[in-house]
Amino acid sequence: MKLALYQGPSPAGDIDRAFEVIARVLSAAATGGARMAVMPELFLPGYNQPDRFADLAQPQGGDWQKRLADLCRSHGCGLTIGWAERAGDTLYNAATCLDASGAVLAHYRKIQLFGPMENTAFTPGDSHCSFDLEGRRAAVLICYDVEFAHHVQALADRGVTLLLVPTANPAGFDLVADTLVPARAAENRITIAYANFCGTENGLSYGGKSVITGPDAQPLASAGRGEALLIADLDAIATIDPATLGTQARDRRQV
Fold it and tell me: Is 227 a catalytic residue?
């Protein structure tokens, strides 16, 4: 299975522009043979839009989800994307994974909200989710979630081998892509796709450096600071020498 990952600027509240980019990404991903494309956190409507979330957030099954499903069907490629979800009076920083037919495979609400903006705008989620993706057990976390080892470990303990992570990591936090994501992948023997923004939005600069990291902590594909579409063949993981993989899960002791 091939997996695509998009790194690009935030649509900054421009919904029409956002859907134009999503369509372009799905088209390019499908042309490259990918079965799933991963896009950044809160791509709909844009991450640094705290004054607009309440007005723009949509419910599950709303217009955004219907349009995303149509695009997946049109291009024959699945999509994992972050968006602002409304459930009654409650807002969530959410991500949905749809397959190539537009069917929802998973819906996840971010547990570890980051900083004053997110904690003011959103309510934290309270559960993990996992699902089958092209013969692999997969799961979704969002940005700050992946920096907490116990969340990744909990999913690995449930048999997850592929973790899809929409993110909005600011500039100055390269530690996450360079160190924490590879560490989470290696200690749990999983693959992590970490999809970030680049550029700036309302005075917030993003760090880029999106990456698809294998269970040996080595990148299958990685981006720099600018716009990029990464495509990695996950079947290449089968060629990794098992002797190079971590044994923490096997050797872990409880005290």
Answer: no
